[in-house]
Amino acid sequence: MTQQANNPLHGLTLERILTELVERYGWERLGDLIDIRCFQYEPSIKSSLKFLRRTPWARQEVEALYLRHRA
């Protein structure tokens, strides 16, 4: 448990992170902020989660944006 003490994303699911970002920015702006095709063309939470779970660099981008948006 002490390993996660300094992890600001501990306890958050990828789905919650993505949902909060979509609510804050909308798909169009999110696609501008992070150049990921699944945010720009027929975006959905389901398809985006599938992509982000398979693509570490994209997930890192989303998590970094989330942390900036929380600050």
How would you describe what is shown here?
The chain has 71 residues and is mainly alpha-helical. Helices cover 69% and strands 0% of the residues. The protein contains four helices and no strands. The longest helix has 20 residues. The chain is globular. The relative contact order is 0.18. The mean pLDDT is 90.
Which H/E pattern describes the elements?
A: HHHH
The helix-and-strand class reads mainly alpha
Terminal CA distance reads: 24 Å
Global shape: globular
The radius of gyration over CA amounts to: 12 Å
Average pLDDT number: 90
Amount of beta strand: under 5%
The helicity comes to: 55-70%
Total strands: the figure is: 0
Alpha plus pi helix count: 4
The stretches of 5 or more residues where confidence is low (pLDDT under 50) are none
| Major sheet | none
In short:
The protein is mainly α and 71 residues long. It has helices at 14-33, 37-40, 45-54, 56-70. The two termini are 24 Å apart.
Topology:
Blueprint: H1 14-33, H2 37-40, H3 45-54, H4 56-70
